[in-house]
Amino acid sequence: MASSSQLRVFSFNCWGLKFVAKDLEQRVQAIANALANTDYDIIALQEIWVYAHYEHIRNAISHKLPYAKFFYSGALGAGLAIFTKLPIINATVHPYSLNGEPMDVSAGDWFVGKAAASVTIQHPQLGQVQIFNTHLFAKGGEDGPEYRRAHRLVNAWELAKLIRDAAHLGRYVIAIGDYNSIPSTLPIAVLREHGNVQDAWLVSHPTPPTTSHLTSELSPAEAIEIHGVTADSPLNSYSAGKPLDPHARKFMGKRLDYVFYRQPLSLSPSFIPQLTCSSSRVLLTECIPQSQISFSDHFALEAVLDIILPSPATPDELELSKPHTMLSVSMSEPIISNASMASTISALTACYRFSRQRAKNELIVFGLCLGLLICLMIGSAWIPRSWINPVLVLLTAVLTWTGTTMLYEGFLFGYWEQNALMNIIEEMEILLAANSSRSP
Question: In which family does this protein belong, per the annotation (predicted)?
Answer without folding.
Answer: Belongs to the neutral sphingomyelinase family.
